[in-house]
Design brief:
Layout: E1 3-5, E2 8-13, H1 15-21, E3 30-32, H2 40-46, H3 51-62, H4 68-78, E4 91-96, E5 99-103, H5 114-117, H6 120-130, E6 136-142, H7 146-155, E7 161-168, H8 174-181, E8 188-193, H9 197-209, H10 211-219, E9 222-225, H11 232-251, E10 261-266, H12 271-282, E11 286-293, H13 298-305, E12 307-309, H14 330-337, H15 342-355, E13 357-359, H16 362-371, E14 372-376, H17 379-393, H18 399-415, E15 421-425, H19 433-440, H20 449-460, H21 466-471, E16 481-482, H22 487-495
Helix pairs in contact: 1-6, 3-4, 3-11, 4-6, 11-12, 17-18, 17-19, 19-20
The protein binds pyridoxal-5'-phosphate.
Residues 111-113, 146, 229, 266-272, 321-322, 400, 426-427 line the site of pyridoxal-5'-phosphate.
Length: 498
């Protein structure tokens, strides 16, 4: 299996190269040159396996330059009960007739990004070794909350790596801040910036391309790499849980082998829903892929009209991990749908960079409509939905998941489609407790995170995740903040280079 760049179809690399590089030097994303197949017999076979073995089975189809031993080393280290609170890794819970919540938040940071970031550090270190890169991998992350913590937990104490995370001092929730400032591990550093998320991101980009820093890294046997969601090593683990969930529905006699299942995904960067699309292309019997956005509904408009236009107001919402106006992974979908037409991709994404806008061809518009349904939900309906679900089904979900549930209800109303449906539940309600309590217990008033956590526990009966409970007594290791202009010096000092 080879990987091509979406902006240069002639470029061809193996998965170890694609993963350790992250992004192609032409600015394109790496995509598998063909989609491996998955038969119903294989799905049936997988239904008897553990999550970790199901993952290994799928990875063998995509990471063909990895040995079986290497793949098992990665899956064993990621998908175990030390890292996840449940043996199934991803749990399925029944919401109402034929509708299932795929709970992807039982990992160490209580959000679905753990599903990929728990394994990425192993993919990266194994890839570097295969390529005979004898350097320590340094990961820099700019975060608005979820990604930074998930990356820290993934990389902490992984041999041959070091990680630094930058977050906006006043731009993350108090629980997210506590999660990061108390981070354990001998190879981690966390740094608050007096600025916003864009300042953090621009700072990181500058450091990545700073010639002086590059030279110092080189002479100290260090190299930068990236953990963000355009890395193929973050996408392929997401394909697994859709296949795994389907296999579980079969073995639990919820569906017969071969039955179609719809999937609903609360979407930001288009990574999670693209993984469902890959699973479907492989042969997993999925029906409609339902793309749910918050009021930053650039994807809803794109799927419905074929015009991508980021020239619009940006809103900070109660589902902040979906507050995105540029959905990077869409590039991979459009590359596939255009028949690997790199010149079209260059044209569209050039226009996006220049004018913030592009329009795809009629042929592609039709293909998108066939596979996807799109809708959105504002903060008011998000709150309403959390309340309704709680009252009707005694199920408490977070704000991102509520967006998905609401868009699914709209889909059912619009189409009458009663196909069984998996809704991707992307965060634990404990992670967004203030918004969740506003919906299900509007009279509750407290700013204290742990009072909120206890209240959600009382109402939801969901166990408090151990990782969040433990934070209460963990000492703060990283305090204070720096100016955005001091980021480069901070990196040089932390790495002890120069
Ligand atoms: C990152 C994130 C999303 C969006 O996922 P994409 O793959 O970027 O579409 C949704 N919900 C939560 C809780 C997230 O952290």
């Amino acid at each position: 299996m080879f990987y091509r760049s979406t902006r240069n179809s002639n470029l061809k690399v193996e998965s170890a190269q694609a993963i350790s590089q992250g992004i192609s030097e032409d600015g394109g994303l790496f995509v598998p040159e063909s989609i491996p197949s998955l038969t119903l017999d294989e799905i049936k076979y997988m239904s008897d396996l553990s999550y970790s073995c199901r993952a290994a089975y799928i990875f063998k189809k995509y990471l063909t330059d990895f040995t079986d031993v290497e793949i098992q080393y990665c899956t064993d280290n990621a998908y175990n009960t030390k890292n996840f609170e449940t043996e199934n890794i991803a749990e399925i819970s029944h919401l109402f007739d034929g509708t299932y919540m795929l709970e992807l938040w039982h990992g160490p940071t209580c959000a679905f990004k753990d599903m990929a970031l728990q394994i990425l550090p192993y993919f990266l270190t194994v890839s570097a070794k295969k390529l005979n890169i004898d350097k320590k991998i340094v990961i820099l992350v700019a975060t608005s909350g979820d990604t930074g913590k998930a990356a820290l937990e993934g990389f902490k104490d992984v041999e041959g790596t070091q990680i630094m995370v930058f977050y906006p001092e006043c731009g993350v929730s108090s629980m997210q801040k506590r999660q990061m400032t108390t981070q354990e591990g001998s190879n981690v550093a966390v740094c608050a910036i007096n600025g916003n998320f864009d300042d953090c991101q621009n700072g990181v980009k500058q450091i990545f391309t700073d010639e002086n820093v590059k030279n110092s890294l080189e002479s100290n046997k260090l190299m930068f790499s990236s953990a963000n969601s355009i890395n193929w090593g973050r996408l392929v683990p997401q394909v697994v849980y859709y296949i795994s969930a389907y296999a579980s529905l079969v073995s639990d006699n919820q569906i017969a082998l071969g039955d179609k299942v719809n999937v609903v995904v609360p979407t930001g960067n288009f990574g999670n829903i693209l993984a469902a699309y890959y699973a479907k292309q492989m042969g997993l019997p999925l029906g409609k892929l339902i793309c749910a956005s918050n009021i930053n509904n650039v994807l809803t408009d794109f799927i419905n009209t074929g015009v991508y236009d980021r020239n619009r107001k940006f809103y900070a919402t109660s589902s902040p991990s979906m507050d995105i106006l540029i959905s990077s992974n869409l590039e991979r979908l459009l590359y596939m749908l255009s028949g690997n037409d790199d010149s079209k991709i260059k044209e569209w994404f050039g226009a996006l960079a220049k004018d913030g806008k592009y329009e795809v061809t009629d042929d592609i518009k039709a293909k998108i409509k066939e596979e996807f349904f799109a809708g959105y939900c504002d903060d008011e309906s998000t709150k309403e939905t959390i309340k309704n679900i709680y009252e009707k089904y005694s199920y408490v979900c977070d704000t991102h998941t509520a967006v998905a549930v609401k868009v699914y209800e709209d889909y059912r109303k619009a189409t009458g489609d009663k196909t069984r449906t998996l809704i991707a539940s992307t965060a634990s309600p404990y992670k967004f407790s203030a918004s969740v309590l506003e919906a299900i217990s509007p009279d509750f008033k407290s700013e204290d995170e742990y009072a909120m956590v206890d209240k959600i526990n009382e109402l939801s009966k969901i166990d408090i995740p151990q990782s969040l409970a433990d934070l209460k007594n963990k000492p703060v290791r990283f305090s204070g903040s720096i100016e955005k202009t001091e980021m480069t010096d901070y990196v040089i000092k932390t790495l002890d280079i120069k």
